[in-house]
Design a protein that fits this description.
The protein has a domain at 23-63. The chain is α+β, with helices and mostly antiparallel strands. It has helices at residues 8-16, 38-48; strands at 20-31, 57-65. The longest helix is centred in the middle third of the chain and has 11 residues, at 38-48. Helix content is 29%, strand content 30%. The chain contains two helices and two strands.
Length: 69
């Protein structure tokens, strides 16, 4: 079994905040073509601090999700 990227304390803190934790992380890839509204892509890029005019693909590494918090 591989060692988790997050330590126990970090996992516990996220669990306490009702996150579904992925201790080794997982990736999601977003493509500009996935979005019918250009403004949505612009907002995502701005949030991630990347240049929307030159970015067509973003890989995101995440460690937790919340569904309908």
């Amino acid at each position: 079994m591989s060692k988790n990227i997050l330590n126990k304390s970090q996992i516990d803190a996220l669990n306490d905040k009702k996150w579904k934790v992925t201790p080794n992380g997982a990736y999601i890839t977003l493509y500009s073509d996935d979005f019918t509204e250009e403004n949505t892509w612009i907002q995502i890029c701005q949030q991630l601090k990347v240049d929307w005019t030159t970015t067509q693909k973003i890989d995101i590494l995440y460690f937790g999700v919340q569904i309908n918090p």
